[in-house]
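Appendix B: complex inputs.
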Amino acid sequence: MIESMEMDERIQQFEEDTEHIIELLDNRSYFKAKEELLKYNEVDIGEILEEVLEQLGIEKTIIIFRMLPKDVSVEVFSYLPSDDQLAIIDGITDRETSYLINELDFDDMIDVLEELPANIVDKILEKTPKEERKLINTFLNYPETSAGSLMTPDYIALKSGMNCREALAHIKKVGMDTETIYTCYVKGSTRELEGIVSLRALIISDEETPITEIMNDEYVYVNVYDDQEEVAEMFKKYGFLAIPVVDKEHKLVGIITVDDIMDVIEEEATEDIERMAGVMDDSDTEYLDMGVFRHVRNRLPWLLFMTVTLMITGFILTKFELVLSQVIVLVSYLPLLMGTGGNVGTQAASLVIRGMSIGEIDMKDVLRVLWKEFRISIVLGVTLSLFNFAKILIIDGESILIALTVAISMITIVAFGKLLGSMLPMGAKRIGIDPALMATPMIQSISDMVSSTLYMLIAAVVLGITL
Amino acid sequence: MIESMEMDERIQQFEEDTEHIIELLDNRSYFKAKEELLKYNEVDIGEILEEVLEQLGIEKTIIIFRMLPKDVSVEVFSYLPSDDQLAIIDGITDRETSYLINELDFDDMIDVLEELPANIVDKILEKTPKEERKLINTFLNYPETSAGSLMTPDYIALKSGMNCREALAHIKKVGMDTETIYTCYVKGSTRELEGIVSLRALIISDEETPITEIMNDEYVYVNVYDDQEEVAEMFKKYGFLAIPVVDKEHKLVGIITVDDIMDVIEEEATEDIERMAGVMDDSDTEYLDMGVFRHVRNRLPWLLFMTVTLMITGFILTKFELVLSQVIVLVSYLPLLMGTGGNVGTQAASLVIRGMSIGEIDMKDVLRVLWKEFRISIVLGVTLSLFNFAKILIIDGESILIALTVAISMITIVAFGKLLGSMLPMGAKRIGIDPALMATPMIQSISDMVSSTLYMLIAAVVLGITL
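Resulting structure:
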């Protein structure tokens, strides 16, 4: 009987095996290492090779990579991160590179070629037949985040005159990969897409049924220049396994499969999170693989922007030196008010940005969002005010006027923070800026400036200090 | 010729059509509305009904819902958000409810039943055959975020003695939905899972080939109690369309399909984003559907926590009143230093949390992360220090000692912020707390306290003020 292993045990087992293989390679027991490696599937072998490359360097990685059966090595290669792919290409001969690249699935090949320096790409394409070279160049020219760059031209095309038996015989003949076989595309005499038919429908229908009878001609499609985020939305909304990509003349140019969309959903979420935290990263390079100066370049712009706005906040405070020096205890509540303003703003902004990003909130909801945040801010503002009012009076033993100053400031600042946090992202979207850019650093800067000004003004009024 | 429409045009068209249908319903032109509605597929009809419910209320929604063909209405129902599903169930007869629930796909049925009040569930289950009722109860008992709660028991089971022809005949007989048909599961004489075979392999192999020859017995599986996040990781890693779920005895109890996993990936990212921004939301309710007090409850805990820590920061500042009142200009650089500390921390935390969440960074990388953030903090700290030093001297016209105080504080605070931001989430994971909780509010609080203390201490030393 096969025993089920818990996920944790399996992960631990995998890590131990990886360590073992690395040890074997380190001791030059290459054949033993290869044997151990081949117990795993290609995805896992790819992960192990990543570790090998990191710990033992490129030479040993190439030795073991070359020892893998040809078909395995091609698939493993397709799963490696692009840095590691480049390292391997650097270490093998041109001939091996050409073989490798040509054996890859079309969409994987395009991904690799996009990362390679132009001179290497030219060298590879030299040996490619003219027709395919043209196709490759077309694909290389699609914008990086478009439907065109995600699609593969490997799909099953059926002729509209076929019946189910002929269609199945055709599918059997051409073969194809798992992820692309389950939806077939029916073309008319021009290359126009007339409809789609699932393999499921072909199998459960009678053999003689014409495919035009069972095909779906109200199918959903995307255009080759549609943004990948919109394509991902379509997949999520309809639960497709694949979606056809058409050009302006409605000719089918490729299909996008669901496995490539999962990466897009994750990339888009990562991009949102980074932008919301004030990191400007326009590459797919992972955290650990990115150099220090690249990290600095991604993080510095917002920090400098913050520095400038915080300087302005500081400047505003110097204008109120009179208030502050008369009642120095006001300083000790400044962090509280500024911090709270930034936080309530960040909370609202994150929810609204995420809501827009997953398509739950759109521009026509602006009044509903405003009204909701306004009510939330009243409840939160009153709660926090009362709490602080009591604490300042009782625990700090300050005068009622000081407590009142902080309490009034608190309500005002919370209301302002919530409105800012919810409206700024929507305003950004309105004028075509990514709402995710309007998160933490932006909210914090504006909120700090406004919070300190409001606090000082309210203090001057309540405490009767002439400015 | 079919013209391709741009995504924008199609979205606009859809919105106009929705408005039109709502107008028709408002004017009681039900049959015309139904006709318009049926031009769309079930997913889109669901979206339109959501709008109808929101704008015209439940009565009209139920009228049009009842007018839909039975099979369409069941599918449309399965795509509605659970609030809307409950509203419809409230408005239709018990008999209609029973029909509706029983016609749903098994996993959709479980989703609906989970949201319904217990007495309604009992009423529905009364009429269900005993065997199915038992199965439903088992499914209802799986934890909400486990593999068990995501799976469906509707899969194609083949006997290990079959050949391809027999297998295909069996598939043709049982039918099944699109997403569940493409991977078939081979069981032995006990109900143990022996292997999986793709529909693709069945079709392209010779009819007489025994399925045991083409099945994959090194397949990947999950356990029924595995967390949905780990399941999603498996799908992303291997690019599966479906994955088998087994119990402790390695018996196949259901399968999870990729369309349900896309929602999980998105939910997990949303949860991360909310937690990182200090919002504690343990429900799937969307922003606009959630009540004001629920929003308050989700946001208040972190704000109160922040209030307490910010009070401590304020208290620390009062201990340095002597420093502040002697050199009041120091106050004006306080927002700058506190803000920068919080921001550099938030940046680092977001990257590390996201890296852990997508499986790129794990616990063994702690030293690599530390070393990377340390170098980044030096470069960033020095850059920001020089910038501020020059600005304070030249633009503000302050003394060199003041400029030096701020510059030294800046380097120290940036270094501390980066270390805190990167290590706090990893520490949290180590002791079993969700790292996403260690983002904005937590970093900001700790950073504020430490920043103001460091700043005051450095000021006292540089300016020679005896505390």
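Chain B has three domains: 9-146, 156-258, 287-463.
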